[in-house]
User: What shape does this take?
Amino acid sequence: MADVLKKVPVREQDPKVRATNFEEVCYGYNREEAVEESQRCLGCKKPKCVEGCPVSINIPAFIEAVKEEKFEEAFKVISESSSLPAVCGRVCPQESQCEGKCIRGIKGDPVSIGKLERFVADWARENGIKPEAPAEKNGKKVAVIGSGPAGLTCAGDLAKLGYDVTIFEALHKAGGVLVYGIPEFRLPKDRVVGPEVENVKSLGVKIETDVIIGKTVKLDELLEDEGFDAVFIGSGAGLPKFMGIPGEQANGVCSANEFLTRNNLMKAFDENYDTPIVRGKKVVVVGGGNVAMDAARTALRLGAETHIVYRRSEEELPARVEEVHHAKEEGIIFNLLTNPVEIHEDENGWVSGITCIRMELGEPDASGRRRPVEIPGSEFRIDCDTVIMALGTSPNPLISSTTKGLEINRRKCIVASEDTGATSKEGVYAGGDAVTGAATVILAMGAGKAAAKGIHEYLSQK
Ligand SMILES: Cc1cc2nc3c(=O)[nH]c(=O)nc-3n(C[C@H](O)[C@H](O)[C@H](O)COP(=O)(O)OP(=O)(O)OC[C@H]3O[C@@H](n4cnc5c(N)ncnc54)[C@H](O)[C@@H]3O)c2cc1C
Assistant: This one.
């Protein structure tokens, strides 16, 4: 009999093979594995896992349905709270959310809630099951800016309440970071993201791509001229940060966002596309979050020896545990407690190396993490031809600078209520990375949900 203290293991592509392709790394559970794993759930009366889920999915109820092999019922339960379950089952940091609170985790492994969610969502898609049809239209129009998880969730929830919703998206494809940032090998675009966007559209949501709010049309014009009764801003945080160190302008230095967008949205890895991309032989990625892991694993798959340079220790790596584990298995070299100080270029202006300094951890800083401190005299050089900066991003100020009366804070994030998404401007709501700065898919979805409720309350009184 299987050990109930352990998760049912999930099948994955062999690390050596997958390091050379862009196919999905994790295969997920099949029917038998999902049912077996579901039986580890204790069905707690006061489920802590639900408290750990920012969109409050009724986790014990959907797992109970999996136990009984009622997969359509399980999908219905999840769909009441989430419009992107196949996405969340793949990319949520479950270890710090639902699974982090699971009682089973006190002695043994927590229930594999993420993999069960993924199984149910994949089963529903493969069996043509759609979310429930929306209510009758109520005649009110809402504009949503951005088609990432925040915008899609807000739009889906409002459509279910009968609103006429249009999403305006700057790029040519809907999905936000799900299509331009997170690589194919973690989140397949046509097979997984596309159908979940279609599910939102099936609720009646219209999506207009190639529309940049603040350039093509201003937010104020949506309210004053285009007949929208309210606007939700879910424009994310797509502006990359750089370090400001000498040599950063050299050829071969780029932001992780640009590198990943060229590869994911513009398919540089696929020989049928002519998108140019830096294909380094030896690549250094600076940073320790999910973005850094994605950039490093992409560079590896494009044929490079790839190093991560991160200024804190392994314990502080902000990336999901699974991504760090996968990156190590694939052969990414981790240079921890290390910080770049200068990038060197050759006579042609191309990157030839990076000087780094060793760090040690001092007292905790404002974030509660121990502050990295330089060790004097410990500089050393890593020869490389490409440096990818994955140091975080901030919101693009285009919308805030072209909209009257929209308050932002000193980090350029839009100021909005956590409970309702209401901003300083009447009828305008915001949520996701545009408000918090770079965060997670599920937090953006939670904010989209809260704002849909806020907009509904506001428009119900008008
Ligand atoms: C490479 C990478 C990997 C990540 N990995 C994970 C992970 O594993 N797990 C996790 O939980 N989170 C991960 N994240 C973070 C997560 O993807 C984001 O927190 C989340 O997507 C934020 O959602 P959002 O809807 O607020 O914004 P976004 O997903 O950024 O979507 C915003 C959308 O608004 C559009 N937009 C911007 N300005 C305008 C405008 N003026 N007019 C019209 N449209 C506009 C953008 O084009 C974009 O499509 C990752 C992020 C990146 C970059």
Residues 270 and 450 are 39 Å apart (CA to CA).
